[in-house]
Structures are given as structure tokens and as C-alpha cells.
Design a protein that fits this description.
The protein is an alpha+beta fold and 547 residues long. The chain folds into three domains: 118 residues, PH-domain like, CATH 2.30.29; 143 residues, Probable inorganic polyphosphate/atp-NAD kinase, domain 1 (Rossmann fold), CATH 3.40.50.10330; 176 residues, Tumour Suppressor Smad4 (Sandwich), CATH 2.60.200. Helices cover 24% and strands 29% of the residues. The chain contains twelve helices and 27 strands. Strands 15, 16, 17, 18, 19, 20, 23, 24, 25, 26 and 27 form an eleven-stranded antiparallel β-sheet that branches. A hairpin with a 6-residue loop joins strand 8 and strand 9. The chain starts with a strand and ends with a strand. The chain binds adenosine-5'-diphosphate and magnesium ion.
Amino acid sequence: MDQRAGEPDGSTEPVSLYGEFTATGNRKVRFAVSLTERELTVQRLNPAPVGRNKLVLSLKDCVGCRAFRQDDKADPAAYLTAYFYPLRRRWVSSVASRQRAEQCFRLAGLEEPHANLEEAEKWARAVRERSARQQYLRDGLSMSELSRPRRMMLLVNPQSGKGQALTMYNNCIQRLLNEAGVPHTLVITERHNHARELARDADLSQWDAFVIMSGDGLLFEVINGLMERPDWEQAIKTPLGILPGGSGNALAASVHHYSGASPVTGDELLTSCGFLLCKGLVSPMDVVSVHLSSGRRVFSFLSLAWGFVADVDIESEKYRHVGAARFTVGTLVRLASLRVYKGKLAYLPAKDCGGSGGASPKKNPTAPRCDERPETTVEARSETTFHNSCHSNNSLKVRRVESAPSQNTNRSLGGPADSLLAPLDQQLPNDWVVVPEEDFVLALAMYQSHLAEDLMAAPGFSLDGGLIHLFYVRAGISRGALLKLFLAMEKGAHLATSCQHLVHAKVRALRLEPQSPKGIITVDGEVVEYGPVQAEVHRGLARLISG
Ligand code: ADP
Ligand code: MG
């Protein structure tokens, strides 16, 4: 049988290395192994295979390869093991996920043990170099950008999610990082804000990456710890990585989504994120600066939520023993006691202004939509299609507030200046759009594709587009329609549901002034102080290890 893992073809490429080795467990089983620039091909020679028996492994799927000798001094052989994580379909499902496929061979062609080891090491080096070059060829990035972090601090929160993060590290991640030869130091967080303190006080010359294995909350701590430092500008450039170990694994699901793979959850998501971490490709990531009513500023990589979504996130804490399903349970509970949240919402539209509400423009003449065109999917609304045409439309539809021009705020607090925001107690700059409604079911600003493992809020999103996707749902939506929206969001199809109450706008900055006396606002799933809040996106401020 011809079994091909990874991308098809490439088999016509010149062979760089060829060898005939035996299996490690049974020396009577012989293989012909050949290495090209893109593939490792393993063909069984003996016992004679029934039909063809060839395994072609793409080096894109390889995380590492090592050569070694066994303790038995009488055995002159050396061993070669290559670690692959190709995408494979499970027989029960059409979804492909990364599955471990180890290839191990015994090399005993030479008499001298050290000569066999040298030969095995030559192979191991060749496999590793080609596998690194595959990334380079695919992504067109410079090799310097590809250099894998030398030492990463891996922060594991033993309390996150179902309390399984440490077990998941022991069962899966430790082996994967060792296979890939990624040196790391495991740090088990002991309390709330521990990770923040570690990031704030770390000697950055010792660390090439901070990787968190928890939910999104722990990365929020690390980012804010880095931004509190006097050297924040360099510190925030330290590559960050994420492994899903919590109940809210939105960034992990987003990183997996950006890699182009089909959606997976649970252990399969963990393997995928672990694989991407080993590959070590670093991309710029937007960070959003969020001003709170106290004057404090926090930095956010995922979301700002108020109303239904924030309530579900926090109220569902008590169901954290069910893991990611806590949001489903929380959504159903909150739906039963659906309420209206009063407040004022305003935003600075992105230049292209590619808003895409689910509402039909005709039935909803007052909605602050940038586009008054027939309904299409969000992907179909390319940025250029809507370029600048929205401003004239908008001027008819929305109230605008005349105010002082925008100014830099809070430079003194550390972190970048916010050039688009006026101080929270002052009027909005005059190019902002004020949403006419004041009764909402939710407001949600997103800057990653996923809101949770199985909720894709912003499909077609990119890590460093400098955009905030602002969604809000106006009051008056029925429970059924809201449930339908969340169900559609599992596939990122909520914007295509033509929901009259959902509005979506691409923005650079926003301000929310809740009027209800009590409530919850979350940033990256963490509760922040309740009150007026505003935010501005900083394009590519941080760096994320992603696919
Ligand atoms: P989850 O997705 O399960 O909510 P998070 O990463 O968001 O996981 O973490 C939840 C919270 O746990 C964060 O606020 C973090 O500060 C806190 N935390 C981290 N380490 C510990 C610990 N050892 N004990 C208790 N809480 C912790
Ligand atoms: Mg959390």
C-alpha cells in the first residue's frame, strides 16, 4: 500500500541521502530509506511486502530527529529516530488532526560503533535541516526569524480548566518538546498574578520565549507583566506561545485556525498547538490598550466584553470542572434570564470600514452600518471593496459628537501612546461613530478569530491586521435568535444568519460607557473594574509563536 502523509508529490526530487536500515525491534525487517529536500520515504524491502509498501512523510510535519546508541556495548549499531506529526483523518470522522508517527531505524552497516553513530548523526542533521528549510520555503520568512527559541519559560497553571494542565504537560508536551529539542524550564504557577510577577521581574537575557499552558487568563498576566517593565518596548517583543490547558482556550484555537487546519478541540488542539510551538515560527501580534475607569491601563490580546458574553464567562466559572463545555452550560443558563444592558457605545471605524452586520439594511434603517449593500458572507466583503465609501453612508445614519481632536493619552503610564483616544472623561474625537442605541444584549470587541475553542467570532481574521472586530447585539432579540447566533458561531457563520439585531464593525478604537449600575466587563476573559472603558489597537506590538 502506498501511504502518503502530508502534502502529495515531491517524490521526483533528487535524493540527498539513501540507506538500508533494519527495524529496531526486529532485525530481519529491512527498509530502504531515502531523503529528499521535502520528504522522507520509507520502503519495506524484507520481508517482501504484499503489494507496494511505501510511506512518504513530509518534512513539514517533522519536529525533530536524533541519533543515539544504546547502552549495550556489544551492539555496534546506532539508532535514528525521526518524529513526525502529520495530519491524518480518523476513521470515525472526516476531520484531520495531527497524530504522532515516530520512525525508528537501526544502522549497523559499519563495524565500528562510532562510525555507525556518525552515519546516524549525519542523517539526523540532514532531516532536521531540511525540515527547518520546509518552513522557510513555505512561509518565505528569513531564516533569522525562524531561529527557534533557545530556552523557553513554560508556565503551567495547575488550577486552570479542569485542573489537568500539569497532567497534559506530563503526558504530551514534555515528550513533544524533547523530541523537538526545545529546551524549556517548567514553572508551575502558585497563585493569581504569579505569572505577571515572573514576567515583570524576569531577566530577559535568560529567556527567548514565554509559553503558557493554561487558559487565556495566564497569557493576559504575562503580557501585562511585560508591559509593566521599564523596558516594555523590548520585553513585549519576547516571543509568546500558548498551549491550551484551561477552559477558555481562545488564543490556542485561534493559532490553530490561522495554521489553516480544520477545527479540533481537546487533546487534538493541544497536539496541534504543541506542534506549532516546536516549529517556532514567530509572527507579529496586535495588542489592544484598554483604559479603565480608574485611569489604569491594561493590555489585551483577545477580547473586551460586556453584557451577555462577559456574564456567561464569569458566571460559568462555577462549571469549570466540565472544561470548555462550561461556556455552553453558562450560555443556556444566562439565556433563561436574558437581560438588557444600558450603555453608550462609540467607535473609530477602520479606514476600509468593512462592517458586516447580520441585520438587513432595509428593515433596520437606523443601524450604524458601514455598508448598505446586499448581504454576503464576511469573507466576500474584501477590504478594498468597501474602501472609504462607508463614511458618506454613515453620516446619514449615526449621531456624531463634535469634540476636541484626539490626543495622546497616558504616555506616562508606560506602554505605547494611544493616539486615537481622548481622555475618558472628555468628549469623543469628531471622527468617531456613536451607536444610536443605548439598550444592548452584548458588546464584544475581538482581535483574534476565536472567542472559545468552539466559537469563531471573527473568521478571516489575521493576527496583526491592526483591527478590532466590534460586535454588538441590540436589545429586543429573542432567546431563540440569540441561541441561533451562538450555535452559528461554532462554525463562524453568525454573520450569515441575517440576524436583525447583530451589528459588526471593523474599528481601530472604541469607547463603552455602561449605564446600568452593576455589571461585568472582561478583558481576555478576566474581570476588570466596571465602568467607562475605552480601547485602541496597536498593530503588531507583541510577537506570537504561531503557524
Ligand atoms: P481558565 O481558562 O481555566 O480560566 P486561565 O488561564 O484563564 O484558565 O486562568 C484562570 C486564573 O487562574 C487566572 O486568573 C490566573 O491568575 C489564576 N491562577 C494561576 N495560577 C494559579 C494557581 N496556582 N492557583 C489559583 N489560581 C491561579
Ligand atoms: Mg480564563
